[in-house]
Write a structure and sequence with these properties.
Elements (H helix, E strand, L loop, with lengths): L2 H9 L2 H9 L3 E3 L2 E2 L13 E3 L10 H12 L7 E5 L5 H8 L4 E6 L7 H4 L4 E5 L17 E4 L7 H10 L4 E6 L1 H4 L14 H16 L2 E8 L11 E8 L5
Parallel strand pairs: 4-5, 4-7, 5-6, 7-8
Antiparallel strand pairs: 1-2, 1-3, 8-10, 9-10
Helix pairs in contact: 1-2, 3-4
Length: 242
């Protein structure tokens, strides 16, 4: 059996199992294994080291970087997590005092069991974020955090802002999904830093139409294939759109 298949029974999903393996937290017979496809035998001794950050996914560390860098405050707020997946952003927001988190994802059965059972979390699975309506949220959303893949962040932001503009938001910018195939090598990795710059500036320019203050930092946690991603924080909502 593959190592990630075996660990999925313990960690709740193959995605979380693969993350743990790639992070070097799994040992088989006393040896660290970093390949999810590693074949194991029934008699093998498997140990899992606890993640330093304790988040249910790598995404938690990306949002934590926003709290650290920008002095982000979500105490008592209602949060919308777009692209929640297993819930790294959701968990991080809760740990920073969010009163309620709407965990929205187009997929199904991904949210970590502990978050699924948390009364502060409203699971919204099988929902395409491009169809969001402000009528879905009571109380109204104060803060949006967004981590989406395989599509441009603009494809979500544009219809979202037709419905409502949150007081503040964090967008994880993934250049590999903003620039198109021309910017990627055969392994799906950005070929040149200029493409990262183009992707970041595109999202910053769009957000700048709606917010007075835009800040960005490189994510301390890179993408699964090694792509550099960026954490963008938008605040001081404009009263009038130019």
């Amino acid at each position: 059996m593959r190592l990630d298949q075996h660990l999925a029974q313990t960690l709740g999903s193959r995605t979380r199992a693969a993350d743990a393996i790639k992070q070097g937290r799994v040992m088989v017979n006393g040896k660290v294994i970093t390949k999810p496809a590693f074949e194991i035998e029934e008699a093998d001794q498997i140990e899992i080291a606890k993640a330093d950050h304790g988040y249910v996914s790598r995404a938690g560390g990306k949002l934590q970087a926003a709290y650290d860098a920008f002095g982000l405050d979500t105490q008592g707020q209602t949060v919308l997590d777009i692209g929640a997946s297993t819930g790294g952003f959701t968990q991080c927001a809760l740990e920073h005092g969010a009163a309620k988190v709407y965990a929205l994802d187009v997929g199904h059965l991904q949210l970590a069991p502990a978050l699924d059972a948390d009364p502060r979390v409203v699971k919204m699975e099988g929902v395409n974020a491009r169809t969001i309506s402000r009528d879905w949220f009571e109380p109204a959303v104060d803060f949006v955090c967004m981590d989406v893949s395989f599509i441009s962040a603009l494809s979500i932001l544009e219809p979202l802002f037709v419905q409502f503009i949150p007081k503040q938001m964090v967008v994880l910018v993934k250049p590999q999904f903003e620039c198109g195939p021309k910017a990627l090598n055969k392994k799906g990795v950005i070929r040149h830093p200029k493409y990262e710059k183009e992707a970041l500036e595109k999202i910053e320019a769009f957000l700048g139409q709606y917010y007075q203050k835009i800040q960005a930092i490189p994510s301390p946690v890179v993408g699964r294939k090694g792509n550099q991603e960026y954490v963008v924080y938008a605040s001081k909502r404009r009263d009038r759109i130019d």
